[in-house]
């Protein structure tokens, strides 16, 4: 390149035509087409859009798109949580633009969650605007495409609205065990609404004994090809009986009848859970990260 040629330092044409804007229902097809490029990495954003649209309060934030020459190359949910997606090859530019916007709109960003490389890239840009990390948790993204154990019996059922209170107690116990926080106290209205919505969408599965929830699991996100589950919990009084293995194996068999892959995340220190997942057929495929941010001053 010639040092005397200004054109040598110009940005590529697609970067000169870069724009970031809030997305609306008119962008639905383009957004879902972009996210379908990687059904696993895009699963959370894809499912939020198909479940709630672009302006539902459950999203707890707004959707934004990064466009190059009018074509969507990245998508983000900026709000209480920050979720990101970028077309391969456009990650750094897209995350830089989203970090600038997150700072401008003062997105709370309680947590940034996603593939570790994406989260760290985005945060490197966001930190230039003064945001700081409070806590970082490592997660292993695990995938099952074929259940390893035979399905011997059916014991799970979809939860119904009459079981909402019992399920909220189970959800809360799980949160208290993992974080010491009781969502019934910190966000009672939102906690109830989210629990009820999952039941209404037939995404919460339970095993009951004498009317008590002894096991539960929730289908949180899904695309045409993949499904993501979380909230796997066994009542403390019932652990050590093989309930978690048999119930997780059952839900995996059920879901793989319609999807190519079942996904979940696990923290590295959860050794007992890891052994259960591996027995069922889950394999660690990628490192994920949950980065919790200091509140905005």
Considering DSSP H and I runs of 4 or more, what fraction of the residues is helical? 25-40%
Which structural class matches the secondary elements? Answer: alpha+beta
Dominant shape: globular
What is the number of strand segments?
Answer: 12
| Number of helical segments with 4 or more residues | 10
Rg value: 21 Å
Uncertain ranges: none
- Physical arrangement of strands within the biggest beta sheet: 1-2-3-4-5-12-6-11-10-9-8-7
- What is the mean pLDDT? 91
Strand content: 25-35%
Order of helices and strands: HEHHEEEHEHEEHHHEEEHEHE
Major sheet, described briefly? 12 strands, mixed
Euclidean distance between termini CA atoms? 45 Å
Structure notes:
- With 297 residues, the chain is of the alpha+beta class.
- The chain has helices spanning 13-16, 28-35, 43-52, 91-105, 116-127, 164-179, 183-186, 188-200, 243-256, 271-280, and strands at residues 18-22, 61-68, 71-79, 81-86, 111-115, 133-144, 157-158, 204-209, 212-222, 226-234, 261-266, 283-293.
- The protein has a twelve-stranded mixed sheet, sandwiched between helices.
- α9 (243-256) links the parallel β10 and β11.
- α4 (91-105) packs across α5 (116-127) and α9 crosses α10 (271-280).
List keywords for this structure.
297 residues, twelve-stranded mixed sheet
């Amino acid at each position: 390149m010639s040092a005397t040629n200004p054109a040598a330092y110009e940005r590529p044409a697609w970067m000169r035509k870069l724009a970031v804007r809030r997305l609306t229902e008119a962008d639905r097809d383009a957004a879902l087409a972009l996210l379908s490029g990687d059904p696993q990495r895009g699963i959370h954003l894809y499912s939020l859009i198909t479940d709630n649209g672009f302006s539902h309060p459950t999203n707890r934030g707004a959707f934004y798109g990064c466009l190059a020459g009018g074509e969507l190359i990245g998508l983000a949910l900026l709000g209480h949580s920050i979720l990101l997606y970028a077309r391969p090859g456009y990650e750094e530019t897209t995350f830089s633009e989203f970090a600038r916007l997150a700072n401008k709109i003062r997105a709370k960003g309680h947590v940034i969650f996603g593939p570790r490389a994406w989260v760290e890239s985005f945060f490197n840009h966001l930190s230039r605007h003064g945001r700081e990390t409070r806590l970082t948790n490592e997660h292993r993204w695990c995938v099952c495409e074929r259940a390893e154990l035979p399905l011997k019996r059916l014991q799970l059922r979809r939860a119904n609205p009459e079981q909402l209170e019992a399920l909220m107690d189970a959800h809360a116990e799980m949160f208290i065990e993992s974080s010491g926080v009781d969502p019934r106290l910190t966000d009672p209205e939102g906690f109830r609404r989210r629990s009820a919505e999952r039941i209404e969408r037939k995404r919460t599965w339970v095993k009951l004994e004498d009317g008590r929830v002894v096991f539960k699991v929730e289908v949180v996100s899904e695309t045409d090809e993949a499904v993501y589950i979380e909230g796997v919990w066994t009542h403390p009084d019932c652990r050590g009986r093989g309930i978690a293995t048999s119930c997780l194996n059952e839900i995996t068999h059920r879901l793989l009848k319609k999807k190519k892959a079942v996904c979940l995340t696990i923290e590295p220190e959860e050794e007992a859970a890891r052994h259960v997942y591996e027995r069922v057929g889950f394999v660690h495929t990628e490192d994920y990260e949950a980065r919790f941010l200091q509140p905005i001053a």
